[in-house]
Amino acid sequence: MGSPQGSRRVLALLVLLKTFNLICATEVCSNTILPGSKGDQGERGDDGDQGRLGKAGPPGLRGSRGELGSQGDMGQVGKVGPAGAKGDRGLEGADGPGGLKGKPGSTCDCGRYRKFVGQLDINISKLKNAVKFMKNVILGIKETEEKFYLIVKEARKFKEAQMNCKLRGGALAAPETEDTNSLIGKYVAQAGLTHVFIGQHGQGQEGADLDDSQPQNYTAWAPGEPKEPPTKDGCVQMSSTGAWSQSECDVTMFYVCEFLKRKRGPPSVL
To answer: 221 has which bridge partners?
Structure first.
């Protein structure tokens, strides 16, 4: 058994604990915070940053048409269009007034002009002779009244020779008379050649400016020629004597081209 003083201390401690529990059970020790009275209204805050744009809404109704604006400046000139169709010929206009009377002419000194014209004729004649000399001697071109003849010193096969003459504006020479054949034969001999390709009349001359309106029956075959009946595609050569003979078409040799005078000038020698 304890002393009475110890018992009083224990009793006092129990009373203290009871009192503390009662105090904690009241609103003072509660965790719940009760709202206070409403305060005064605060000042207005600053404007916030602009928010992001939202999605585009549906289009509105079409508005009424506005007033017509003022006329703008003139634009650049466009490209020229195609030419139109030719119009009808207009009516003939009225005759204009007559001109003033001219001054009387002076007397013609015809003697002086006749002398000038005569000297001009002489000079033209000399020029023609010089041109003929150039063609016949320098360029080696022969001619008759109707045609020019040119030996092309480029060895070609027969078909190539035909095409080359055509490109020059003529055709392979096809003698139509004995005089022409003799002229070409002497031409070949003067050139120091033994044989050249020539054509037959109407052969390989399509599109060439040559006159084949009249049938030509002239031939100058050498004895024993032709060995076979000549054909349109046959190949013919002429010797320096003017004699004709059949030839292989695939061999290469020089050839003679002919050109009409009435439609073309001197042939190209290039």
So the answer is: 244
Phi, psi torsion values for 257, nearest 5 degrees:
-105, 150
- Which one, of 254, 258, 249, 159, lies nearest residue 208 by Cα? 258
Phi and psi for 20 in degrees, rounded to 5? -65, -40
Q: How much is the average pLDDT of 50-68?
A: 86
Q: Which residues pair with 236 in a beta bridge?
A: 198, 246
Q: 242 with 185: CB under 8 angstroms?
A: yes
Phi, psi of 155 (to 5 degrees): -65, 120
Reported as a single tens digit per residue, the pLDDT across 215-237 is 468 899 999 999 888 777 789 99
Q: What is the DSSP letter of 238?
A: E
Quote the Cα angle for 170-175-178, to 5°: 155
Quick one: pLDDT at residue 90?
Answer: 84
For residues 196 and 252, is the Cβ–Cβ distance under 8 A? no
For residues 58-79, give the mean pLDDT. 86
pLDDT band at 12 (very low <50, low <70, confident <90, very high): confident
Residues contacting residue 144 through CB under 8 Å, at least 6 positions apart: 179, 180, 183
Is the model more confident about 121 or about 263?
121
Helix (H) or strand (E) holding 253: strand 253-260
pLDDT for 106 equals: 72
Kindly report the backbone phi and psi dihedral angles of residue 77, in degrees, each rounded to the nearest multiple of 5, phi listed first.
-75, 130
The residue written with tokens 């031409």 in the block is: 187
> What is the C-alpha to C-alpha distance for residues 233 and 158, in angstroms, rounded to an integer?
10
Largest Cα–Cα distance in the chain?
193
Distance CA 249, CA 158 (A): 5
